[in-house]
Amino acid sequence: MALNDRVPPNPARPDRPRKARVPTxxxxxxxxxxxxxxxxxxxxxxxxxxxxxxxxxxLPTGPVPPELLAAARAAVRACPTLALxxxxx
Length: 89
Ligand code: SF4
Hints:
There is one protein chain. The chain is α+β, with helices and mostly antiparallel strands. Helix content is 17%, strand content 13%. The chain has 2 helices and 4 strands; from the N terminus they run E-H-E-E-H-E. It has helices spanning 40-44, 69-78, and strands at 27-30, 50-51, 57-58, 84-87. The longest helix has 10 residues, at 69-78. The two termini are 27 Å apart. Iron/sulfur cluster is lined by residues 30, 35-41, 57, 79-81, 83-84. Iron/sulfur cluster binds next to helix 1.
């Protein structure tokens, strides 16, 4: 099933499908120049941040789940190069 199959039609323009809502919220972002692959963020957020084969973080594209926000803020504070941040979307 495609995403638009679950979105009801736009009542004002039934010929056009309504745009699907993308979840928004605070999301982790990394400065790829500033990051020096310490891996601390992955240690502090296991299961949310993983590391690539060189030790650079792979961040999820969506917002940080509310239950992980405190840990995400701690990871931002702990990043030794200040490369990790939380961006509001
Ligand atoms: S803690 Fe900071 S410097 Fe280390 S991998 Fe994560 S973002 Fe990069």
